[in-house]
Automatic annotation (TrEMBL):
PANTHER family: BLR6921 PROTEIN, MAJOR FACILITATOR SUPERFAMILY MULTIDRUG TRANSPORTER MFSC. It comes from Streptomyces iranensis. CDD domains: MFS_MMR_MDR_like (cd17321). It is found in: Cell membrane. It comes from the Bacteria. GO terms for biological process: response to antibiotic. It is a multi-pass membrane protein. This is Drug resistance transporter, EmrB/QacAsubfamily. The chain crosses the membrane at residues 15-37, 52-70, 82-104, 110-129, 141-162, 168-190, 202-222, 228-251, 272-295, 307-324, 336-355, 361-384, 455-474.
Amino acid sequence: MPETAQFVDPRRWKALIFIALAQLMVVLDATIVNIALPSAQADLGISDGNRQWVITAYALAFGGLLLFGGRIADLWGRKQTFIVGLIGFAAASAVGGAALNTGMLLGARALQGVFGALLAPSALSLLAVMFTDPKERAKAFGVFGAIAGGGGAVGLILGGVLTEYMDWRWTFFVNIPFAIVAAIGAVAVIREPVESHNSSRLDIPGVILATTGLVSLVYGFTRAESDGWSAGPTIGLFVAAAVLLLAFVIVESRVKAPLLPLRVVADRNRGGVYASLALAIIGMFGLFLFLTYYMQVVKGYSPVKTGFAFLPMVAGMITGSTQIGARLMTRVPARLLMGPGFLVASVGMLLLTQIDLDTSYPALILPGFLLLGLGMGTAFMPAMSLATHGVEPRDAGVASAMVNTSQQVGGAIGTALLNTIAASATTEYAKSHAAGAPSRTALQLQSMVHGYSAAIWWAVGILVLAAVIAITFINAGQPEGGGAVAGSGDGAAEDAVPVMAH
């Protein structure tokens, strides 16, 4: 076993605090801006056509550069990359909060994505190389998994509070103290084994192909949402993405020091983790979006009340991750946590397909949120640990980036796919029920709820598929030994969820 696997940092638990804080900042940013967007749009005069770019600019930069950021972490060192990512993210957030016009805000969001792509994989891979004892690793990834799973919902709460009681600009400024504290802590307590660095030359062709391919894919789904799936630009982007990513695979199989060593993704367990996580995030992103609009537009909740309505989901995720997943991860094969976890989440999602104009929050939405949170938290915990398990230390950064990439691409697909389904179902319902509607407003609201319900049914099916993939492909047994990142790359896998990015 490599010497790196035996490295035990006496300050690793203190380091976890600052790594978790940085991860929370990145995950929060995926949703905190959503609730503030209407206020920002009105304040800066952003057109309806450009509104989506406040979200898309971040997603394109973050999703497109994650693999590059993961490899940079392996080359530069994870601590250095982590600190640079924190400082850059804080600076970009300051620019966003001080934005005077649309261009300044969009540029800040793109910069947040760039530095987030450095920060997210370096945070996860730091855990992978610092926590090598299986029981300690389970606890560390339990904390990290709870943040990765529940941070998006926390962002909705915090975004609502800041927007309603302060100003939309604080959804950007709030990142600055997070980043400063995390950076100071990182300098003081984080250490990583020098032997885990990868001194290979950077694979420039791989960087170009992976970045342009992923950007084309994410942007293709964004255009599908606005222009339709059969539109020329949408099809062109998907074709370009397929060509570029295929070329990327060919290049990676031939170069001496690839950006993404194919051994990282070829492993059956890691491949199963990446695929099932991507599918789970597709369902989750759609739910956040639909339920936010449902509670504010249909139920008349304030932004703050809407945010707090998601709290039971966050509590469920934390409980599932730290009390179920972390406790059982060293005793039960990962597939027997991930598969049932996704199925429990799908039952919660199934309850939420029953929403109507007069749905009771305590009777239907609350139990749906609790089941969804418990299931996702239980599944995310072993997934995050499994995705980097058995990876060579020099590949820990890029393996971590693959988890974030699968989530980010899953989020883009989920938002576009489920939004398109919801919009189509809404339009069809409005047309078929126009004659008997008591009022135009009632018809609009009922049509909207019908569209949300139709899309959530799809999310149920997607979560069931994630469970099937987890149970079928992931065959790793109970974690043994301390080799979290000590294998040769062909053993059981271990993961790290980020970012929600979404």
